[in-house]
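Memo subject: From amino acid sequence to discrete backbone structure tokens
Action wanted: Derive the backbone structure tokens from the amino acid sequence.
How to read it: Take the token row as a discrete description of the fold.
Attached in line: The record itself begins immediately under this heading.
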Amino acid sequence: MAEPKLRLLGVAAHPHDFTHFAGTLGVHTSLGDTATVVSMTTGVRTHNERLSAELMKPVAERDPAIVNQPPEERAAEKEEELRKACALFGVTDVRVLGFPDKPFVAEHHPDSIKKLGEIILEVRPHIVFSQ
């Protein structure tokens, strides 16, 4: 008789935070378990290494394309980065909810709690990873 497969759910505040449980999810997906990753925010204001590096330069040396990048554009980049990173670990179900970050506090966004609850009811995970 085959071992029952597990359903795992990883919940992160920001896309970058997937790294906290990426390896564990990768082990499970390699064993045939399924994993869903949820990022509560787009992470536009968090973990923006390119912008941070530019802002450390003298004003005259800053790249305006990076400094003035629209948040929607950066959000799309971060979501794509997350999807690619998740794919490396066998995770194809990736959801970015897009709530405001910096800081993300769930009780300030009641809809975030409702939306995550809906995902939990849909996925019915055996194991939930968070930070």
About this structure: The helical segments are 22-30, 49-55, 64-67, 71-88, 110-123. Strands lie at 7-12, 34-41, 93-99, 127-129. The mean pLDDT is 92. The chain has five helices and four strands.
